[in-house]
Amino acid sequence: MPMIDRRQGLWGVAALGLASLLPLAWRRAQAAVPERTLAVVEKGAGRVAFYSLPEGRPLGHVPLGTQPHEMVADPAGRFAYIGGYGVKGWQFGGQGGHQLWAIDLADRKLARTIDLAPHRRWHGMRMDAKGRLYALSESDSLLARFDAPTTADSPDRMIPVGGARSHYFVVKADGSRAYIADTMSGLVIMVDPDDASFAPVKQHIGTAPEGLALSPDERTLYVIDRPAGILHALDAGTLRPRARKSLRGEAVRVVVQGDGRLIIANTADKSLTRHSPATLAEEARLPLPAAAPGLNLPAGGAILYAALENNRIAIIDLAAWKITGGFATGESPDTAVLL
């Protein structure tokens, strides 16, 4: 066996010491990064489930009821509110649900249930910058507002929308206007969520509007006519049409990045496409393993969480424009909240 001189011995000891420190340094670095959690509404499973990110390890779930649909969290991320839709989709018959569920996100439990009977099919859910909760009754075409949702047992305001089947909506940050996709009438309807004397402004855009999003400056409203596969840009102040663009067949959701570019969930094409806010032209396409009925983009975020029809969440890096991860969920994932 060759002899080991003093210099070799010292280098060997140093290397062993460094190697022993590497796992400790890695563990400390990992501990310094707080674990994120994604709360996901699983419509078919009738629950909201919690998953660690990015690996998607199940952390627990809260049973709710038949077909919970849209979810929104308060600005503090303490409570989430979920609409009790009660049927599989707006095309399906049945009375639907009459309640909203309030979820304690910290303790992962049902905090309380708000009974809104006789009004039913509570679907769209939004919150403004003041922490006021908005919920949309599809069957009654009513927009309800809760000024203090953590304690409210009933709405502080209910505004008649004047539609036929009011399915989805968005609201301005200050709560001064709400925009409703009325699927059965082909209308987009603008209302004042505080003043019922304000005559709703209606714009017919086609067959069945569904996905809606506001531009970052809230001057433009983007609307998807789902079965027609057409993206519309409307003036958010008047609802006058500005532009339109044919998509890759049926499309369901649109979200807006911080830079104003649009992300479209193409149902028929099983893809995402990115579009210019100036021209609506397609700039990029990303194929998906399944259609995405739910797009979840945290405010100011660069990571999109797409809920897929094959019961998975796809994690998409928007800067790299690629799928970077994903995990399995319960049946029919849809809206999600990043914690």
UniProtKB/TrEMBL annotation:
SUPFAM superfamilies per UniProt: C-terminal (heme d1) domain of cytochrome cd1-nitrite reductase
InterPro entries in UniProt: Haem_d1_sf, Host-pathogen_enzymatic-act, TAT_signal, WD40/YVTN_repeat-like_dom_sf
Gene3D superfamilies listed in its UniProt record: YVTN repeat-like/Quinoprotein amine dehydrogenase
Descriptive protein name: Twin-arginine translocation pathway signal protein
Source species of the chain: Sphingomonas sanguinis
